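Intended use. Records like the one below are meant for learning the mapping from a protein sequence to its folded structure. Do not use them to infer anything beyond what is encoded.
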Amino acid sequence: MPPLATQNSAVSAAASGWSCLPAEYGIPATAPALEEAREYCARLARTHYENFSVATWFLPKRLRQHFCNVYAYCRISDDLGDEVGDKAASLALLDQWQAELDACYDGAPKHPVFVALAETVRQFDIPKHEFSDLLIAFRQDQTVTRFETFEDVLAYCRYSANPVGHLVLYLCGYRDSERQQLSDYTCTALQLANFWQDVTRDYAKGRLYLPIEDLRAFNVSEDDILCSRNTSAFRAMMQFEVDRAREWFRKGLPLVGRVDRELAIDIELFSRGGLEILRAIERQGYAVLGNRPVISKPRKLALVARAALGKLFSSGTGNGSAVAGASGTHHSAAQQSGVNKQ
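Structure written out for the chain above:
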């Protein structure tokens, strides 16, 4: 196909894709003012993800807008890959989103997310690849629907989940590889817990994140998944996957003791939430097909209450200054941003 025809085809696919999404997601002809862009991101965070508001209770107020900016980027990026329903259109939208990310780093974005994000980028000096890595995963979702080995699943998590943890660390003043590695363990564990929770939902979208090698090892067929047959073999395989995810949570646990108390509370809250998903799977006897495990509302409240108590008892201990101190050490005044689907 000639270059012009290819370009016209991509523009047409993108236009079709935008029409499938909320009108507010579109890229405007002119950039909004910074304050308007900030409010856009804050509104998106408040209205699209109930747990985001809970998480921000435990963050220093000065970081909340930046977390909103990062969340807005992740939310729309995810929706471009997952909510359009047309692979060609999603790929075209993700290319346009990448172009806006490039413009953000070049100083000329138009979309409100990137106008707000540019401020975060400058303040926290976050490398562009932490944002673009997420787009690699969302592009991969359009073409890769099966994973032969567990290593292949981990390679996917490297792009779909781990960058989010890096972005959070950058916002809180940490940029060393040791903390990033611990964060990777936790983010991968959260992604695995969501995969094992959503086997039926993902299969309905044509995706299977359970390693094919494990299906063979446990004598489970895709037809079992299609027909929601929670056989003894399937449940044995899910027990194996749950135990494996729990091990990744365990490997990431030392991060809680390596960061400021306020961030540690958030990490612990989300880690415990992920472990609760694994426990919910166990309570169902690992029979997740056609019966999505969920965390009960009382249990969610108990997790938040525990986190709130941790926040209360950490007040006045001087820990709050650690983030500021780290920021002074790691941040430059040159050029930052950043969700996990539930």
